[in-house]
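batch job 7 of whatever, protein = Eukaryotic translation initiation factor 3 subunit A
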Amino acid sequence: MATFAKPENALKRAEELITVGQKQEALQALHDLITSRRYRAWQKTLERIMFKYVELCVDMRRGRFAKDGLIQYRIVCQQVNINSLEEVIKYFMQLATERAELARNQAQALEEALDVEDLEADKRPEDLMLSYVSGEKGKDRSDRELVTPWFKFLWETYRTVLEILRNNSRLEALYAMTAHRAFQFCKQYKRTTEFRRLCEIIRNHLANLNKYRDQRDRPDLSAPESLQLYLDTRFEQLKVATELGLWQEAFRSIEDIYGLMCMVKKTPKASLMVVYYGKLTEIFWMSSNHLYHAYAWLKLFSLQKGFNKNLSQKDLQLIASSVVLAALSVPPYDQSYGASHLELENEKERSLRVANLIGFEVEPKAENRVALSRSSLLSELVSKGVMSCVTQEVKDLYHLLENEFLPLDLALKGQPVLTKISKLGGKLSSVSSVPEVQLSQYVPALEKLATLRLLQQVSQVYQTIQIDNISKMIPFFDFTVIEKISVDAVRRNFLAIKVDHMKGAVFFGKQLVDERSVSALSIISVEHIVLSLINKIVGYLRSIEAEGLRDHLSLFAESLSKARTMIYPPAKKAAKLGDALSNLAEIVEKEHKRLLARKSIIEKRKEEQERLLLEMERVEESKRRELQKMTEDAEQKRIAAEYEQRRNQRILKEIEDRELEEAQAMLQEAEKRSKRKKKPVLEGEKMTKQVIMELALNEQLRERQEREKKLQKFAKTMDHLERAKREEAAPLIEAAYKHRFAEEAALHEREQQQEIELSRQRHAGDLEEKKRLGRMLENKRILEERVVISREAEFNRLKRERQERISQIIQARKQEREARRKMIFFLRSEEERQKKLQEEEEARKREEAEIRKKEEAEKQAKLDEIAEKQRKRMLELEEKERLEKEEILRRPTAVLPKPTAEPPTLGGRPTELGGTAPVPAAAATAPAAGKYVLRHLRATVDAAAPVAPPPETDRWGGSGSKPDDRPSWRDERKPTSFGSGSRTSWSGSRR
C-alpha cells in the first residue's frame, strides 16, 4: 500500500500512471488513499481525487471499487460538506450513462444486444457453447459484447448509488433523483426484471428506515419535504409499472403508497390522489375486478368534481358515464357463493384491504363488516348525484337494465343503446391522470348483464321456453355463450335453469320437470294471441315484489295450460311399462357395475385405512424410541452436570483454602511490621483473606497518617527558622545594594565619555576616505555599462543558438516519427494480409476435409448397405435351400433332372436388349466359378467337363473387364431367379 505525504502527490502519481497506460495501478493508488485513515479531514483536493477515481472506475467498469470509494468519501464529508458527495455521485452517474449511451449508439442491433433475461446473471451455457463451437463472431454477438456490459455497469451504478444514499436526511433529493433515473432506465429499455428488483430495493430501504429508528441522520417522514419526495418516488414507480404492464408490481406500489400515507397519517395532495385512483382503475380492470374498478372510478369522479376547477362539462360527462357503466359491469350475483368458510374469511379480509386502499370506511368490528357490493355502489351513485352528470344513452341503459321489466324485448331494446355507447369516448383535455376514456370497453360486460337480466325476467314469467326463442331474444351471443353465462349464474345461485338439448327447451324453476310440463311449450306457440294480455298484467303487477309476481304469472300460465288442454285434449299415450322393462336389464347391469365399483372403492379405502394405521403405529414407535433416546441423553447430561458441579465445588474449596493460607501469611507479615504491642486477634477459620487485607490496609493507613503528622510538625519548625534568618539578613542586603549602585553609576559615566570620543574620531576618518574615493566614481560607472553590454550580447547569442538547436531536434524527431509510423503501417498491413491468407488457407483446408469426410461417410454407408443386403440374400438362399431339401426328402421317388437339360424358365443368357443369347449345354450345366449351385445338383456339375464361362458384359453392353479397377462392391452380383431343378442366373448391379 503506497503512502503519500499529501493527497496532491497521490493525484499526481495517478495521472503519471494513466499517461503510461497503467490504469489499474492508478486506480489502486487512489483507492488506497481514499480508504486510508490518515486523510479523514475533508479538503478540496479530495474532491478532485474522487472525480479522477470515478473516471477510472467507469473507464474500467470497476463497480465494487466505486462503491468502496464512495462509502469512504461519504464518511469523510458527511458532516462537513455533503454537497461535495452529491457532485461526485452526479458525475459518476453522468459518466456511466454517457458510456452506456455511446455503446448503444455504436451498436446497430439494440434489441438483439439487450435480449437477456437478467442483467445481473452471468453468461448462459448456450452462449459459452456457441462461443467455443463457432470460430467467427456474428454482428449480433459483437453487439452483445459491446452494449450489454455497459448496461450491466449502468444498472450496477444505480444500485450502488441507491445503497449509498439510503436513509440519509441530507441526501433525500439525490436519492429521489437517482430512483427516478433508474425507473426511466427500466422504462426505456423494457427491463422488467430489473424494475422488480429496483422496487424491492426501495421497499426494503423504507422498511429498514422504520425498523431502525435510532439511526443518525435518519429522514423524518413527518416533514412535508421528505414526505413529498418519498411519495413522488412511489408515484413514479406506479406509473412506470403500469406502462411496462407489470400489474402485480403496480398493485404493490399502490400498497406502498397507502402504507406511506398510513405511516405519516397524512393524505397527499389531490393531484397525486387523482393519479392514485386513475392507476387503480387500470389495475382493477386488468385483473377483472369490476366492483373495485367501479369504486375506484367513483373516488376519481369525486376528486375531479371537488378539486378540479378546470374540469369541462364534456370531461365530467365522460367520467360520470365511466362510473355508471363500470358499476353496471359488475356481475349482479355474489361471486363468493358456495365457497368454503376459509375462502369466505379470506374474501372478507381481501375486501377490507381493498376498501382501505380505495378509501372507503368499513366497520372495524369483524361481525359488523360490510364488504363492498354492487347494490351499495348503485345506491351511492344515486345519492351522490352521479346519474345527473351522465349522458342520455347511459341513463337509458341504466333504466333499461335496472328498472324496466321487459322479458321479451330487453336485449333487443338494449342493443342500439349499446351501439351508441360504444362510439362514445375520447381524450380528456382537463384531466391529466386519465388522458383517454373509451366506453366501448364496457360493452361486453354490459351485454352479459343484459343477457342475465333477460334470463332472470323470463324465468319469472315462463317455466319452459324454446332454445330458438331465447336465441332470437338475445342477439349478442350464440346459444353456446348464453349457456356458459347461464351455467355461471346457476353456480352462483342467481338463476335456476335446466337446458334440455334433446327437447330443444330451457326449463326454469328449482323443481324437477317431468314429461307433463312439456305441454307448457304450447303457450309459446300461441304467444302472439295472449301477448297483449300478458303485457297488461305485467304492467299491473310491476310494483309487486319479485316472488309475488312470479307466483301470479305462474298461476296465470297454469290456467292457460289447463284451458288449452280442455280445448285440445292430448292423445292417449301407450303405457311405458314395456319401454321401462326393455331397459331393465341394462339398468340392472349398470347398477351391478356401480355396486361392484363401490365395493372395490370400499375395499381400497379399508386397505388405505389399514395402511394409515400401520403408518401411524410405525410413527408412534419411532416417536417412542426417540423419546426414550432423549430421556437417556437427558439422564447422561444430568449425571455429567452433577459430576461437573462436584468438581467445581472441590476446586472452589481448594481455592478458598489457598486464600485462607495466604491471608494468614499476610496477617503474620503485618504483625511483624507492626511496632505496636497490641496485635489483632485471629478468629481461627473464620478469619478470611478479605478481612485480613482490610486489617492490613487499616494498619497502613494509620502509619501513613502518623507520618503525615510528623511531616507537618517538621515543616512548621523549618518555617520559623527560615523566617528568623531572613529578618536578620534584610539590613545587610540593603547596605550591599547601595554600595553596588554607586560603583556602577561611576563606571557608566566613564564608559559613556570614552564612546563619544571614539565616535568623533571615526567620523573624521570617514570624511577623508570619501574625498579620496570620489575621484573614481565616473570610472566605476563606465566599467559597469561595458560589462552589462558584453553580457547582454553573449546572452542573445546563446539564445539564438539554443533556438536553432531546438528546431533541428524537433525536425529530426518529426522525420523519425513519420518514418516509424510508415513502418508500423507497413508491418500492420503485411500482418493483416498474411493473416487473411492464412485464414483463407485454413478455411479451404477445412472445406476439403469436410468434403473428404462426407465422401468417406457416404462410401462407408453404401458399403454397409451392400453388406447388409448381401447377408440378407445369403440367409434367404439358405432358407430356400433348406425348404427345397425338406421337399425332396418328402418325395423319395422324385427323378433328378438331366444334366444337359436347359432350365425352362431361363433359355439363355439375358442380353442388353432383353433377348436371349444361346448358351452351350456344358456351360449351362457347369456354372461359373463363385456361383451358387444347389446341393442335389453338385454331383452332375462335378461330372461335367469344366467350361470357361462366357465373358460378362459390362453395364454398357460391352464385353471384357471394367474400365477401372474399382472395389469389389461395384462387381456385386444379384440373383434374378432360382428354383428347384433350375440354374440360378445372376446379373451385375451397381448402386
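notes: The chain has a mean pLDDT of 75.
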